[in-house]
Amino acid sequence: MGFPKRSIPQTLSVLLLAWVLIHCQTPIEPEEEEKKEPMTKPDTVKLEVKFEQLGCPSECSCTAEGAVDCAGVDLTEFPAKLSDSTRQLSLQNNKIEEITVEHLSHLHQLETLNLQNNWLTTDGLEDEGFEMLEQLAYLYLANNQLTAAPKVLPPSLISADFAANQLTRIFPHTFGQKPKLRSVYLHNNKLTDVGLPDHMFNASDSLEILTMSSNFLQVVPSNLPSSLYRLHLKNNKLEKIPEGAFDNLPNLRELYLQNNHLTNEGMDNETFSRLSSLECLDLSNNNLSVVPKGLPRNLMLLHLEKNFIRSIPGDALISVRNLEYLLLHNNKLRSRSIHPAAFQGLKKLHTLHMYNNLLERVPRGLPRRAKTLMLLHNSISEVGRNDLALYTLTELNLSYNKLTNAKLHRDAFRKLRVLETLDLSGNALHAMPLGLPRSLHLLEIKNNQLTSIPDGTLTGMDKLHKLVLSHNQLKLNSAYQGAWMELTALTTLDLSGNQLTYIPTDLPESLEYIYLQSNRISSVPASAFEGTPNIKGIFLRFNRLSVESVDESSFSHLSNLQVLDFGTGNTDIPLKGDEINGKKIKDEQET
């Protein structure tokens, strides 16, 4: 906002060697949040070798250690004459349609095969080809056109990526009998319950990561390996979780079930209770009506947003004493439907999101050690004297509720002794509230009906850096004399969209940015900014200024000024690119 963009320095590593080839090819991930572990490779900086005896196709780059890189060279066929000693083969981003047994039969040392983003179909893959790759550890087939997985993959497999295909079927030995298998990626396919074998991972007891998001599953897959620590099942058609589905997963730490059709009737109090290691549970965007009971004790992050939750029983959260993040926004909660003891015992909870609900007042019994409380976009019309007894709270958002000065107790904030950020925007306040915490760094009260800043309201706020009072009804005499001068740390003051006729005369010396656009200011006198030598940005568009009413000397001493924005909406004011006393006038969009 008023600063030219900085160029990002680029660091180049220069090696005094001839023929240096830098390899850094990692598979493209169709879903960003479902991360794969790094692919094991030799040192990525190698001397390029293209001797015919190594079997390096002309379109490709090869290293003496057996890495062959043919990525993105428009191949339509599997490369011929590959060396028997090939260990890593990168064929991603081509147009290969077919791979036969003959293509692979001699690659006995192959460890990594990357075929992402080609034109492969199930008919174009011969099952026996992969089976004979006895050293194959990493197989990447994402972003192809497969409708069924290969029937047999080698037991040496460590990671397999079949994401973003059209898979409808998995076979028992696709992923079964793989003692080294650690990760399988099957998201963005067309898998249904009938397309999965009963024991899909039989004797694959090292599996840690399984992603099956964005398919058509209606039931959680059965007989999952006890070694799992991350399970993605979001964006499916899950309606219920069968009894005991998660009983044999003592190592599971992350479970993602968002964007399904789960209801409270589709699970019981024991559904999650045996997940003794679970730290993150995402049940957002389902059809839950009540916070589920029987949650595991080690849970740290609980997503329940975007459901239809109407109540929180007193014992629903009693077991999750390690909970740190509780996200309940976008539900149907009312204050009276939250049991007073619902949050009791959550001594580690520091982030509570309850915005976009139907709360008519601040819920009772909030966790006293919370640091972030989001209550915006509710119907809260009052805050009592003891509603906010939250001694460690640093961020409070009460914006876009129905607060008025009459029902906002003057001592409502008295216990918020370390509060740094307070947002009261979008309410019906006609005066800045008294008793605001002196610890504030950021205060926003935009989009209200403020007509006054009562005497002493800003006294003692020597930590406030940013004050946003835009889109109110403030006039020049709305603030008590010396109000702005008391804010000795203030760097940003936003008074845009008010009814000011003059620039305030008691601005603090610390000020760097002042927003005065969309007011009724008709002049800029020589003394307007004499007390703000550090100012960098002045925004005055959409006022009633003219060339004659702007004293150029008012800017002459502002050595740090970077943006002087008169823009549009004034009368005969100099346009962008003109200068006032050597200062170039900029458009706000230009900055």
Structural class: mainly beta
CA-CA gap between termini: 6 Å
- Average per-residue pLDDT, rounded, comes to 89
Helix content: under 10%
* β-strand amount: 5-15%
The total beta strand count reads: 27
Shape: flat
**If you compute it from the alpha carbons, what radius of gyration comes out, rounded to the nearest whole angstrom?**
32 Å
The helix count comes to 3
Low-confidence stretches: 1-33, 35-53
- Main sheet properties: 25 strands, mixed
Order of helices and strands: EEEEEHEHEEHEEEEEEEEEEEEEEEEEEE
Can you walk me through this structure?
The structure is a single chain. This protein is mainly beta and 591 residues long. It contains three helices and 27 strands. A hairpin with a 3-residue loop joins strand 3 and strand 4 (67-69). Residues 1-33 and 35-53 have low confidence and may be disordered.
